[in-house]
Amino acid sequence: MTELLLVRHGETVGNVAQVLQGQMQGALNDNGRHQAEMVADQLRDAHIDVFVSSDLQRSLDTCRIIATSLGRGDEEIFTTPLLRERDWGDFTGMLIPDLKDKIWPDNVESLGQMKERAQQFMRLMRKRYPGKTVLAVGHGIINKAVQSVYFNKPMNEIQKMSNAEVRRFEL
User: Fold this and answer.
1) Per-residue pLDDT tens digits for 58-83
2) What residues pair up with 155 in beta bridges, in sequence order?
3) Helices 30-42 & 57-69, crossing angle to 10 degrees?
4) What's the burial of 20, exposed, middle or buried (CB within 10 Å: 0-12/13-18/19+)?
5) At 69, is the secondary structure helix, strand, or coil?
6) How far apart, in whole angstroms, are the C-alpha atoms of residue 118 and residue 56?
């Protein structure tokens, strides 16, 4: 069994500005960095074997803060595009309030595609890290897709994760 500690990245400048960041790199703000430090404090006594992150900067920075605070180095973080946020296609970078009543472009990643990535991620974690505890930092919607696959429920039935929230799963 692999234990997965699934974390959403800390708050970003884009989150506050209501930018649909998608697969943009994004930057943590001061609050986001503080949130990552709080996750590390929360997990201070946990045994974590492996640190995994989306390859997008906002998640990687969150993971680095957590790993460093727990006495681990950058070289111990494995990055994967499987944990990237949803690709919003032509909507990427737009303000969320401005999207009301807009017709979705054809190049937005489908929920089915996201769930397939989530399934691939979980298979990879089970295969690569059997019997290990993995802390994985992703994003709001891909983390929702991971949980949707895990619980075999539609994504709209999965509660949204807050920035820097941690949820535990046994894979």
Assistant:
1) 999 999 999 999 999 888 899 999 99
2) none
3) 40
4) middle
5) helix
6) 16
What's the confidence (pLDDT) of residue 5? 98
pLDDT tens for residues 49-59?
A: 999 999 999 99
Tell which residue, 73, 112, 92, has the closest CA to residue 25: 92
What is the radius of gyration, based on Cα positions, of the chain? 15
In 3D space, the residue among 67, 69, 58, 68 whose CA is nearest the CA of residue 140 turns out to be 58
pLDDT at 111: 96
What value, to the nearest 5°, has the Cα angle with vertex 66 and ends 124 and 60? 55
- Phi then psi for residue 9, to 5 deg, are -55, 160
CB 21 within 8 A of CB 92: yes
Q: Which helix (H) or strand (E) holds 3?
A: strand 3-8
Distance CA 107, CA 126 (A): 31
- Identify the CA nearest to 30 among candidates 65, 79, 56: 65
Asked if residues 144 and 121 have their Cβ atoms less than 8 Å apart, the reply is no
Contact status, residue 93 vs residue 20, Cβ threshold 8 Å: yes
